[in-house]
Amino acid sequence: MPLPPRRYINPFSHQLTCALRPQSDLVVEGIVREKAKSFTVNLVIGRNECPNIAFHFNPRLDQCYVARNTLLGGQWGDEEGCGVFGFPFARGKRFLIEIYLTHSQFLVAVDGVHYCSYAYRTPIENITGIDVSGAVDLTSVYLRTSLVFPSALPPDFPPSPHFIPLNSEGTTEHELQVTPIYGIFQKKLTLNSEIEIIGRIKYLPTSFFVNLQEGKNIYPHPEIPLHISSRFSQTKNFVVLANAWHDKGWGKEEFPNKESPFIPGSEFTLRIVCESEQFIAEVNNQLLLEFNHRVPYTNIDTILIYGDVFVYNIRLNL
């Protein structure tokens, strides 16, 4: 339940009445002030002059950087700063931060999209409070239990550009998109369905992947009947592999017996066809791989594209 509006003052401090546990889900919603430099969400331990901080989430707008850390015994640990996508906050913009607790880590979403994870450095049962401070105006703070992550955004929240509805009648045109991109099918995959992705590899890539999967949640882990990953290295030993996630784990990786067609800086067209016994993937009209079904394809309703690519267009024919 949300806390009473009269308590949404800044700095905001709330003492927990029960211990956090896996499936606890904290939501902080507000607006970044126009002249903001930074703000902070802390999950704290104790209420003395210098409490320990189990999780410190610190967006810095003057650096376009989000710091994460833990403070124990007056000492900060190693700071983490990488995110799944670019800096998600802007001055004057509404935001929604979701911090979800699993058995081993915090999962953080911003505006409905998974942004980062952070492994526990101290038992979560020790967390006693939630503090929010800095250049934001809070509108809502929730602490609830949830079975999935990320949760759906409130109905009045602006739609995320990372989620693209795909129709089943041909082409859906979009401007240049930066990953992650979740293409949401209007109906589930069927036999002889075709998916075409047109894009360009970044100039200094590390990797990218395409998943055909069931649902868009991060937790619990979705079933992934097809995972195609392209990995790059400075030695030009580029690798493409295929796999599937089923029954709580990855299977055996399969490698095409040919050179990778994905070249840094180059455009590509990836076409995937669902046949009765296998997926067939082609790049620029050349066969890339054949991947036998390990998981029923009939539950696929989402395509996830993530990594060092720009996506120009996704075409879907179900």
From TrEMBL:
CDD domains attached to this UniProt entry: GLECT
Keywords carried by this UniProt record: Lectin
Keyword Nucleotidyltransferase attributed: no
Top-level lineage group: Eukaryota
Entry-linked SMART domains: Gal-bind_lectin, GLECT
Listed InterPro entries: ConA-like_dom_sf, Galectin-like, Galectin_CRD
One Gene Ontology MF term: galactoside binding
Domain Galectin positions: 12-144, 181-317
Pfam families listed in its UniProt record: Gal-bind_lectin
PROSITE patterns tied to this protein: GALECTIN (PS51304)
Name of the protein this chain belongs to: Galectin
